[in-house]
Amino acid sequence: MVSQTIVLQLPRSVRRRLRRLSLKTRHKVVFRRCQIVLQLAKGERPAAIAAALGCDLSTVYRTRQVFLRVGEASLIPKKSPGRPRRVNAQQERELAQTLAREPRALGKNFSNWTAPNLKVHLHWTVHPVTVWRHMRCLKWRWHRPVPRVASPDRRYRAKARYLRRLRAQARRGQIHLYYADEMDVALLPTLSGRWMRQGQQAEVNTPGQNAKQYVFGAVNYVTGALVWVPWPNKNNVGFRQLLQQVVAQHKHTPVKVVIVLDNFRIHKAKAVQAWLHTHRAQLRLYFLPTYSPRLNPIERVWRHFRRNVTDNFYFGTLPRLMTAVKAFLTELASSPTVILSIIA
User: pLDDT value at position 7?
Assistant: First the structure.
């Protein structure tokens, strides 16, 4: 292509706008097009312009032709519309409705949706990765569900209402309300999610023979006070030790202590009943409906404990484990506001 002198006739106002645009823009294509037009208006040769701007000579001629045909709008590059969508809005709605239903409710022979079987069910002609991408856009994520325990207790609703009454009384200062439970502390670590480098899976050591101890605990629903007792066995002796510590916390107050707990057999042992008879003026027990861990807030304290102490860490020996348990629970007991935030 032969380079010849081409002069563009531009009004002064147009030149000012092009100079201003070339100074303000951060887009290299816009800058180059402005400079080509401005240099042509000055009478520069196309070859010299191409050499100065580091572009091909055909780019100079093409920019001039489009500018003459379209005008200043040709200086701004148009965004490419891209490839048309292969999944439309109606198909996305069908995907969301399908994900909201169980596969077996739709007559499938499996229990969990995956991208490949969603593609087959919806008769999509796209790759399973495309299905997965649209699931992400619809805010569906792969998570582990939590078990839902249905209590067979016929008086579940009545007991739950009475628990709300106890909480109201505790907030008014009419009673001291505690929730109590026991926790197994095993040498075998509990496993949960943790940070890992991509492509590498962390391993957690395990003992050749597992060993256990137990922690009896009670938490005050109003103040967040935590009373706990480590004990070698899960028996009524350790439970009575916990009761004695709770009573000792309020021996100088006339307000009665109510402890809410589950129906584990050690809570109803004869020795416990005899001990309660001698302290009936100070303390009474209220038993939760069967299979109702959600009604006991101390379960959240134990979950917080495991997440911070026993998850993904092998202590090697039971004494080292119990030292860590006592240190963590002592620190936690000194922060009742943290406990209240956990059980809220």
Answer: 67
The type of residue at 108 is: K
How many angstroms separate the CA atoms of 188 and 178, rounded? 30
Taking domain 156-190+207-343, whether its CATH number is 3.30.190.20 is answered by no
What is the token pair recorded at 155? 């008086």
Query: Going by DSSP bridges, is the β-strand pair 226-231/175-186 parallel, antiparallel, or unpaired?
Result: unpaired
> Which residues, given as ranges, of the chain have pLDDT below 70?
1-7
User: Structure tokens of 143?
Assistant: 């998570």
- Cβ 90 vs Cβ 44: under 8 Å: no
Element (H, E) at 177: strand 175-186
Task: Encode burial over 299-333: b for 16+ CB neighbours within 10 A, e otherwise.
Answer: bbbbebbeeebbbeeebeebeebbebbeeebeebb
**What is d(CA 157, CA 38) in angstroms, rounded to the nearest whole number?**
82
Residue 15: both structure tokens together: 């030149």
CB of 181 closer than 8 Å to CB of 305: no
Q: How many residues in the chain? A: 344
Task: Give tens-digit pLDDT for 7-30.
Answer: 678 899 999 999 999 999 999 999
- All structural domains of the chain with their residue ranges: 12-75, 89-137, 156-190+207-343
The rounded distance, in Å, linking the Cα atoms of 342 and 344 is: 6
pLDDT tens digits, 303-324: 999 999 999 999 999 999 999 9
pTM above 0.70, yes or no: no
